Amino acid sequence: MKKFFLAVAACAAVLSCVSPKSDAPRYSHVIILGFDGFAGAALDSTDRMPFLKGLMEKSAWTTRKRSILPTSSAANWAAMMMGAGPEATGYTQWDSKTSVFTPADRGPGGMFPTVFTQCRIAYPEAETACFWQWDGIKYVVDTTAISTLRSFPESEEGIQPMAAAAAEYTVREKPALALFAWDFPDHTGHTLGWYTPAYYDMLEELDKAVETVVKAVEDSEIADSTLIIITTDHGGHATWHGNEVDSDLFGPLVLYGPGIPAGEIRRPVYQYDIASIVADALGLPVPASWRGQFSI
Ligand SMILES: [Zn+2]
User: Fold this and answer.
1) Per residue in 130-145, pLDDT tens?
2) How far apart are alpha carbons 272 and 129 in whole angstroms?
3) What is the CATH superfamily name and number for domain 15-282?
4) 73 CA distance to ligand 1 centroid (A)?
5) Could you state, in order of their start, the residue ranges of all structural domains in the chain?
6) How many angstroms separate the CA atoms of 240 and 72, rounded?
7) How far is the CA of 127 from the centre of ligand 1 (A)?
8) I need a surface site. Which of 116, 189, 243, 251 has the fewest CB within 10 A?
9) Gap from CA of 72 to ligand 1 centroid (Å)
10) How far is the CA of 52 from the centre of ligand 1 (A)?
11) Would you tell me how many other CB atoms lie within 10 Å of the CB of residue 69?
């Protein structure tokens, strides 16, 4: 009996953490800028990202967001979008395209509910978008719940055009929720190595992409109602990732928007917390299957 009461108390505590705090959403727009393979230690050690570093001074941030295991791409993009780890989502590999076992939950579209699924449930008419360079992204977002889908070349030639398109689209369409997912610096890491001069050259290039989108939002009429999230799926080392080492596990998470307290986030942040942060910002219903927390 004692165990029963403890279980009920624990459940109530968890639910109080993950249920939306109020009926009024804190933001009308959430824009996620995701950079594949962006290692937290690389951001710590570089002066090649002046725009992002300046933005962090006005943001809540950490460079030690923890990926889920394995520290592989699709498994972590899925956790970011789905608010739960691979044991729940069934996305367990670098290239998972569907749940490899029965997922803990299914949304109206048939897959584990994502932030886009929940946004569509809460706001059936809302404009939402996903732009990507790596095709693997489209399998983890629930495309049945997204208004605008665009792919860009997976090469370096796709980086700045995607940033320009993301900026133009965001200002024009004012989406409730958008994920813009670059396939860099992961590409550079796999070919030339993480923490190499070429990797830092790429970070400088990606800093321009961040600047393009963030400045467009800041100069638009949605600036006062937008939360911008900058993050990654995993880090890396040598020319690889997927291992159980700090350099693969830790990545940046930057939260920038009105009302966000500036400073380093001191509590542990997990990959699946990002979905819950999005849900809290937009006032989305949080499925019981999610495990993230949203407090910073
Ligand atoms: Zn990746």
Assistant:
1) 999 999 999 999 999 9
2) 20
3) Alkaline Phosphatase, subunit A (3.40.720.10)
4) 3
5) 15-282
6) 10
7) 26
8) 243
9) 6
10) 20
11) 19
CA distance linking residue 32 with residue 175, whole number of Å: 11
Query: Which residues touch 287 (CB under 8 Å, ≥6 apart)?
Result: 83, 105, 107, 113, 118
What is each CA distance from 83 to 10, 115, 117, in whole angstroms? 19, 8, 12
b/e burial code for range 209-241 (CB count within 10 A of at least 16 → b)? bbbbbbebbeebebeeebbbbbbbbbbbbeeeb
What's this model's pTM, rounded to 2 decimal places? 0.92
Residue 233 above 60 pLDDT? yes
Distance between Cα 154 and ligand 1 center (Å): 13
Distance 186 CA to ligand 1 centre (A): 6
Per-position b or e across 165-195, b if 16+ CB within 10 A of its CB: bbbebbeeebbbbbbbbbbbbbbbbbeebbb
CA 5 / ligand 1 centre spacing (Å)? 42
Longest dimension (CA), the chain: 63
For the record, the structure tokens of 113 come out as 């509910």
What is the per-residue pLDDT for 281?
96
Is there a contact between 236 and 186 (Cβ–Cβ < 8 Å)?
yes
SS3 252: strand
User: Which residues line ion ligand 1, judged by CB < 5 Å?
Assistant: 36, 73, 186, 233
Instruction: Return the structure tokens found at 235.
Output: 């880090």
